[in-house]
Amino acid sequence: MFMPIAFAVAGAASALVTHSCLRRAGAPVPVWTAALTAALLVAVCLRGQDGAWPVWWLAVPALLTVFAVPLAVADLKYRRLPDILTLPAYPALALALAIAAYGGGAALAWRAVLGGMLFGGAHALVHALSPRSLGAGDVKLAGSLGAVLAATGWPSVVLGAVAAALLSVALAVGGPRHPTVPHGPGLLVAAWALAVFAGPGPG
After folding, report:
1. Cα(177)–Cα(175) distance, rounded to whole angstroms?
2. Model-level pTM greater than 0.90?
3. Measured over all CA atoms, what is the biggest interatomic distance in the chain, rounded to whole angstroms?
4. CA 136, CA 126: separation in Å to the nearest integer?
5. Coil, strand, or helix at residue 40?
6. By the 8 A CB rule, do 139 and 120 touch?
7. Which SS3 state, helix, strand or coil, does residue 132 take?
8. 159-195: per-residue pLDDT in tens?
9. What's the rounded Cα separation, in Å, for the pair 194 and 177?
10. Separation between Cα atoms, residue 82 and residue 85, nearest integer Å
11. How far is CA 176 from CA 170, 173, 189, in A?
12. Which of 55, 97, 134, 161 lies at a 20 to 30 A Cα distance from 124?
């Protein structure tokens, strides 16, 4: 029981930090975001304890959760993915992936690097061709998420892109009327689900 409790406390504490960061960026998120972060971190912990993937992978979905929840909520509420969280996600997830590569092998590290470049580059190209269809924040987010997706295996990069697009379509159809549809939540949910339920690809 100690580990899930520790993860819940860590989730609540991290949410206070991200809440403060987003408030300074002019995009404060609701208090319940802390509870959601804590709950999802407990789910990550339990998944790891069940032996769903090696222990060296734990830091990847855990850190992804810390960034994903507040960013998804902020994008849904403000149609923004503030740099104050999207940019620090790069070194944080890079460190987590480096730990994973130490256990999973060099192939995992190379996949992460190439995946980040390809996924981020593809989103940058779409943004350059049609800035109104994909925001700059989505491009900044895509690189770090692409690294995580590729670390779980190349099929996850394609699956993540398709799942994110479908989730964005669902928001456009079923969400409140708004001139723009946030793509960040779809990207974040797809990457989180694959990191947690697919786990690391073969090294």
Report:
1. 6
2. yes
3. 51
4. 10
5. helix
6. yes
7. coil
8. 999 999 999 888 888 666 666 789 999 999 999 999 9
9. 29
10. 6
11. 11, 8, 19
12. 97
